[in-house]
């Protein structure tokens, strides 16, 4: 199939597929006699894998490293596992940060009238006072 069909099937843009190929995230794609990419199931599976790992937050560099390990002729299972564990730890830390932010927003919404509006009024008063001070010193 051509790149447009692969894009439609995977939900990955043609530009992203070309980028994945250029970055070595997927193997070089065979070409037709006229030079068009000829994408087979092997490449489709790689595109899907890259997409899943990017959705899991893996950086291009880590993903490239993982794929090099995966494609290595020797057994690199331990190194692959270590990279995945590192990525999982990174994502869990991000989840913890998100949980804190969500809790903060939940609190702000639960106390909007008694906290947020009062804070907004105080900040507006400070802004007006600062503007008046600045105008008086000019």
TrEMBL record:
Please give the InterPro entries that the UniProt record associates with this protein. DNA-bd_dom_put_sf, MerR-type_HTH_dom, MerR_fam
Query: Which molecular function GO terms apply here?
Result: DNA binding; DNA-binding transcription factor activity
Q: Which residues form the HTH merR-type domain?
A: 1-69
Quote the Pfam families the UniProt record gives: MerR_1 (PF13411)
Kindly state which keywords UniProt assigns to this record, in alphabetical order. DNA-binding
Spell out the protein name for this chain: MerR family transcriptional regulator protein
